């Protein structure tokens, strides 16, 4: 009778397993549950579940799991380091500066142009390539193939080099201190075009011809912030803040997130970034249908996850455990050569 009352855990009915999985918003927890036994794995894959929280890429190539707060390091080949990610693809750089994308689950890899060589060719001063910040974007991150178009923004402090390629051949490079693309903050694909945002909210579109070996057509779409220059209501107008810009596609809209960073103590030449903290956000939508095109302020976002390595939007109702109109972030604004804990300034804020 006792044996009949308590069966093995592997015999847990699929409907009960689904109820458990729906209470696990963390991707890592779902993976652990499915790894218990083969029936749990096969039955778990059949469940219709809310989208799990994405992982945030940390400056050292590890990943931060929301909401569990765990730091994960994905297995990568010896001699390589992780410099970023595009959804399920890791951006790896080997000791000889060879660049690849690798899916850590299928182990599929795609070769990329040597971004360090591109940067050195375009830059006019010496710097340690290991201290550069890399962001990669594609028109469809979940459908990367050998002929996928990939744009890589390599940043060294306030400078940025944009490399647009079809692996493994680089097709177009521009240094961010040259016209027309000066002082680039971020790039994102939207509606088949690559968009780049520079200082003062100037937005450019880059349209590619059939021959990707030729230069794209660059057009300034939005000249300035216009009437959207103000900061969040929680920061007094007279207070001087540093800001960062992030581009992200959200539900058929192109958004720019302005992150305002406050000085919370005396300025120091050596530890300036340790005396700074995110004070608030302003989210703007590119109104590309108006004439002229302009930025307009919005507050209905869903869930936004922002970072210099990559940004992502998700409908809050489809993301397990997330809140409406919230922005998730970590401290990734210092230049990589300056030490700063990514958890010194991380939180989730409601958009204002």
From TrEMBL:
Residues 9-42 form the F-box domain. It holds the Pfam family F-box-like. It comes from the Eukaryota. Residues 63-335 form the KIB1-4 beta-propeller domain. This is DUF295 domain-containing protein. It comes from Triticum aestivum.
